[in-house]
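Structure tokens please, single chain.
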Amino acid sequence: MQREENIVMSAKDGVQSLDSEDSFSLVDFLEQSSGIAEVELKKIGRDPVELFSRAVQPILWLVVFGQIFSQVRGIPTGKISYLAFMCPGILAQSVLFSAIFYGIAVIWERDLGIIHKLLVSPAYRGSLVFGKALSAGFRGLVQAVIIYVLAFIMRIEIRLTSEAILGVLLAVVLGSAIFSTFSLIIACLVKTRERFMGIGQVMTMPLFFASNAIYPLSLMPPWLQVIAKINPLTYLVDALRGLMIQGGQSAYGFTFDFGIMGLIFVVLVVIASKIYPTLIH
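Here you go.
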């Protein structure tokens, strides 16, 4: 219990400001968000096992399934190999699977009373949500490092220019922020760990398969293409494929991909900021 009290004290130190309900200050908002993110990263540092355990799934997909699927000649991948085509999709999958269960920690904090103490601080509600999203982005960066190492070992031709790597990292952070904030919204609505786990497990695979992660959209029936085009994972994969793989291209363009993801993230942060306090009821 002492550790949880230290977390609360650190969070309060990180979000201290003037009365933020009276007027908006971008500086205060960013300071508060960074304070929350710092606290969340400290918790990850105390228990890093989860981050590395997440590496098992992408290894299986690339080493096992990727080798098998690459023998299927009916999947059009253009001028790149199927493993290269699949690699950004597996990175996006790792980001999704890691972030979509982020809300379970929020429910755990509610049960310990941490959220009650944070909500009485003078911090913006949006900064509490945004800070958690930033920390989730760090989890995504760990997944990106793992995928890059696997790609190097498997001799997948990836772009190693500074611009490409920075673009990939930005896309990963943004994708992680989107799905972690979506997860937080689900946690606020269902309020119990058991229901949250059930909903999270139900949603992960449809989000993954209703995207262009392991096959192009052209192979989908028309109704599934419509779903894929409103799935944020599709735009994350599209951006990663154009940035990460030599010879890879973005079907929609990087401006459109990042614009759509940024818009989705802003909308989710606004929604989460409105309903986050309801988690304590």
